[in-house]
Amino acid sequence: MAPATDLRAIFFEEAEELLIALDAGLRRIEGGDSGGETVNAVFRAVHSIKGGAAAFGFANLVGFAHSFETLLDDLRSGERAADAVLVAALLDASYHLADMVHAERSETPLDQAVQQRAHEALLAVQDAASQRISIEVPFAAVPMEFAPLPVAEKLFTVDFAPHADAFSAGHDPALVLRDLAALGRAEVTLDQSALTEGFDPSQCLLRWRVRLETDRDEADLRAVFDFIAGHCDLSIREGGADAAPAGREEVSPVAEAAPRPATPARQAAPAETRPEGRPEGRAEPPAPPRATIRVDVDRVDRLVNVAGELVIHHAMLAEAIVRSGRRAETDVERSLDQLKQLSRQIQDSVMAIRAQPVKPLFDRMHRILREAASVAGKQARLVIEGETTEVDRTIIERLADPLTHMVRNAVDHGIERPETRRAAGKTETGVVTIQAAHRSGRIVITLSDDGGGINRDRVRQVAVERGLIPATAELSPSEVDALLFLPGFSTATEVSSLSGRGVGMDVLRSEITALGGRISIASQPGKGTALTISLPLTLAVMDGMVVEAAGQVLILPVASIVETLRPESGAGHRLGAMDPVVELRGICLPVIDVGAALGFRDAPADLAGRICVVVERDDKNTVALLVDAIHDQRQIVIKSLEDNYGHIPGIAAATVLGDGSVALILDPVELLPGRSLLKPPAAPAPAGTARPPIAAE
Amino acid sequence: MTIATGPLHPESALGATTPELREFVVFRTLGQDFCIDILCVREIRGWTKPSNLPHAPAFVEGVINLRGAIIPIVDLADRLGLSAIAEDERNVIIVTSLGEKVTGLVVETVTDILSVPAADIQPVPDLSSDELRAVLRGLVVHQGRLLRLLDIAAILGPELAA
Amino acid sequence: MSLRVLAVDDSLTMRSMLHAALSGAGFDVTLAEDGLDALDRLAEVAPDLIVTDLNMPRMDGFGFIEAVRGGDTAARVPILILTTETGQKLKDRARAIGATGWISKPFDEASLVATIHRVAAV
User: Fold this and answer.
1) What pLDDT score was predicted for residue A678?
2) Which residues of chain A have pLDDT under 70?
3) A276 part of a folded domain
4) Which pLDDT score, from 0 to 100, does residue A282 have?
């Protein structure tokens, strides 16, 4: 039997899903869809949370969910319309419900006062509703009457003899008789012959015979007895009392084991007998859902690891074969190729298992936005695009915090107050848009607002005040914007209750960097600000180019590589004393010697004999990385350096090579030395730079 | 006694009749004898050439692959401010775990696994330099050898990662 | 041979709890996620007893009970309703369409098992 903690975990996991379904349903209702199935789904979500919570004894949660459910029931039954007041109350209730679930999960009780307020708010909406209903009632209840179907009435004789233990099993024969009588005209005869003087009143010793004239069929009659079927002898036959049951012994007072509900096979219940108003039924089965299974995440992760090891061991095997000189044998070669294909397919399939759409993550931002707006006294709505874009679940999980910060920032610092917006000729409600898309092997998420844009003068001023830049510094607009990412920079003159939680852009940036991602900012005064983050699709595998620099084997992510070139002797120019550049089709690219950037050696004087790998940064700036040799290009398994060590600037992660040794994966953007603030030659777009352009020395 | 209590050895639960025994892995590097609590030690393995790590402190030799996990390798002698030991295939790596983090310590040789009554662990004399005191938990005299009991947490503390 | 129980509930939590409780009591348990799912499994499972939730997507407990009672695979199999609902109207309706018993959630494991034994032993 599963220990209770497992069940708890299941409950909380399911509750998360239900909360997401609840949120999505409420927003459909908000959008004007108060169709039956939408409301039902919302109702069921709350109902299921309540049911589970009850099982674990979360009394507060049950109580709140119950009130929530009651309100939803009004909506479901059509007693209330989904007006703005109700929808707002339902959304608030759903947020509070989520908080309550999280509080139970983390075993940190919510503030009693907060709980009480939320519950009272919910009840207040309900009361308002019931008052209104009571006013409208005089016009409401129109009894529905159906003309009785012209069905010939039949006469049944029912012999009903509860077992002696029927009372103790909780049955009341009187209720059964009442139900039976409700089916038609009944004539009941009581047989009390078994009653003797001094009988035991706890034993049921009475027997009844009922003559029933009804238009219902035998099955309907039997149904009445279903609850008590195990505790009575029952005989139902068509016709008067004289119509003795041929060969049936059910009336026998000494019936052995009581019969099972001894219904003769029923006729298929015709659809018309369904109670009205319930559309469910077999007649119109919805499209069958795609078969899915639920798998423990740990199991998938184990599979991902094993698949990764498979890729590594394929590489090891290939190297061993090369060393043994048998590579030339075509059988070996072919098998090895097939093995490579297969292990890659396994890897891809396993990764596909972990890929999830960003939708649930994005959907959570509705609440963040709503709360941030209400605290800031602003009006904003969220628009989501590309929510079906899939990305590895490990990335989704770790994106939640950064995205939350971005949404709050957009509301706090981006969207203007309604009156300001009106004065600027904008709609009072600001729009925050989150978009996701796949772009060259990465997922790109853009969060933009239609607010006032970055106040560059103010940013400059703060940066100078804090000594981050000299007062005389000449910065392009995008460079000014990028100042926001400097550690400790914050333009918030007043600390709002939301973004005052110490979430600066520098924190955001390091959160994204820790995921192997980049963040950039772009802003247009008066029009708005856009933050773009770009992330690897998975934290598990990537295509890498195996290069060598200063005697070290290193990996460059293929996704970032534009091309490679072999500079001729003297091709490198130097600007000033330090910065070499190389010319590529008329454009000068800054050159960074990988070995030197990592501190393994001094930068070589001549580029000749080495190789330039031209890499593109997310903001379309290109640089040339100088390496000594290119060995290979292959799929590599990404291993964290941070698990056991920590982040190294310029290094994204590590991998294990075919010989079992470790190779570091370069992060081309972080490799750029701070001073490469050389104006990007052909970059008119004010896309902003991913790195703080100026070191905070 | 000023010795910090490490994770208790299971046997210590047996009661007062058995003196509390602590088990240590004893090793030698740069001619000096050390020991660490066996509960911090995951395994002891032969030497593997690490891959260099950029921007790392000198005592971090690099990283190796330990069954799919990337773990840093620290030259213990260098970390203790002695001097780096010579690269030698006969060196051994003591794989230690501290919390979630796994780190390999390179030493010259592992000599012993030792059970010592907790009461036999002596405090670090006040004479020692602060630097040394910071990484020592105590001293154990065993068969005429002076074993320095190292505090793994202090050695692999937050300053390890640059 | 152990008693075959088909347990129908749309909540994973409830399914897990039912599975734990019922298989712990020695029943052979099959789980279904809603009425339609349960109907699909009916012939294959041939349950001795059915425990079902009421409020479920696609096909609710009422629809399911009607379909079972109206079909011929399991028309006579006892059906226990397990629900948080308490309304008398719903109980009456359940009885009218052929439910055998009504158990309120949260259920007490021992009494659920006892009820099943009692109902199934008939």
Assistant:
1) 32
2) 1-4, 127-152, 165-172, 175, 195-202, 204, 226-227, 229-230, 240-291, 327-328, 440-441, 487-488, 490-503, 539, 569-579, 605, 617-620, 672-697
3) no
4) 41
Count of CB contacts below 8 A, A vs B? 77
Q: Tell me how far apart the alpha carbons of residues C99 and C80 are, in angstroms, rounded to a whole number.
A: 6
| Contact present, B and C (at least 3 Cβ pairs less than 8 Å) | no
CATH architecture of B20-155: Beta Barrel (2.40)
Could A599 and B54 be called an inter-chain contact, meaning their C-beta atoms sit closer than 8 Å?
yes
Q: With the C-alpha atoms ordered B115, B120, B123, B125, is the resulting torsion angle positive or negative?
A: negative
Specify the length of chain B in residues.
162
Q: For residue A565, what are its two tokens?
A: 């070139």
Confidence of residue C51 (pLDDT cuts 50, 70, 90): very high
Contact between chains at A41 and C57 (C-beta distance less than 8 A): yes
Q: Which amino acid is at A401?
A: D
* CB nearest A266 (choices: C69, C99, C101): C69
Touching, C vs A (3+ Cβ pairs under 8 A): yes
Query: What pLDDT score was predicted for residue A680?
Result: 35
All partners of chain C with 3 or more CB pairs under 8 angstroms = A
Max Cα–Cα distance, chain A, nearest Å: 124
What is residue A197's predicted lDDT score, i.e. its pLDDT? 63
Q: Where are the domains of chain C?
A: 4-121
Q: Write out the two tokens for A537.
A: 């699709």
Q: Which chain B residues touch A661 with a CB distance below 8 Å?
A: 49, 51, 64-65
| Domain assignment of residue A682, yes or no | no
Asked if the structure places residue A678 within a domain, the reply is: no
Tokens of C18: 């039912």
Same-domain pairing of A604 and A578: yes
Cβ count near A603 (within 10 Å): 15
In a 13 Å sphere around the CA of A579, the CA atoms on its Cβ side amount to 16
The answer to whether residues A177 and A243 belong to one domain is: yes
**First-residue to last-residue Cα distance in chain B:** 34
| A327-337 exposure pattern, b = at least 16 Cβ within 10 A, e = fewer | eeeeeeeeebe
- Where do the structural domains in chain B lie, given as residue ranges? 20-155
Do A193 and A48 share a structural domain?
no
Residue written as tokens 């990988």?
A594
Does residue A673 have a cis bond before it (omega within 30 degrees)?
Answer: no
Which subunits count as partners of chain A given 3+ CB pairs below 8 Å?
A: B, C
Q: What is the interface pTM, i.e. ipTM, of the complex?
A: 0.81
B99 to chain A: closest CA residue = A644
Q: What is the pTM of this model?
A: 0.49
pLDDT value at residue A490: 63
Cβ contact (<8 Å) for B54 and A651? yes
Contacts of B161 in chain A (CB under 8 A): 645-647
Coil, helix or strand for A398? helix
CATH class of segment(s) C4-121: alpha beta
Give the SS3 label for residue B151. Answer: coil
DSSP-assigned states of every residue in C43-76: HHH--SEEEE-SS-SSS-HHHHHHHHHHSSSSTT
List, in order, residues 6 or more apart from B151 with CB less than 8 Å away.
B4, B134, B135, B136, B137
From the list C12, C13, C122, the residue facing A260 with the nearest CB is C122
- Model pLDDT, residue B160: 54
| Residue A394 sits in the same domain as residue A518 | yes
Tell me how many domains chain A contains: 5
- Range of the structural domain that residue A247 is part of: 154-261
In chain A, whose CA is at the least distance from the CA of C80? Answer: A227
**B12 in reach of chain A (CB within 8 A):** no
Domain boundary among A536, A558, A577: A536
Nearest CB to A269: which of C23, C70, C118? C70
- Tokens 């939350």 correspond to A404
List CB contacts (< 8 A) between A7 and chain C: 13, 16-17, 20
Q: Report whether A689 contacts A481 (CB < 8 A).
A: no
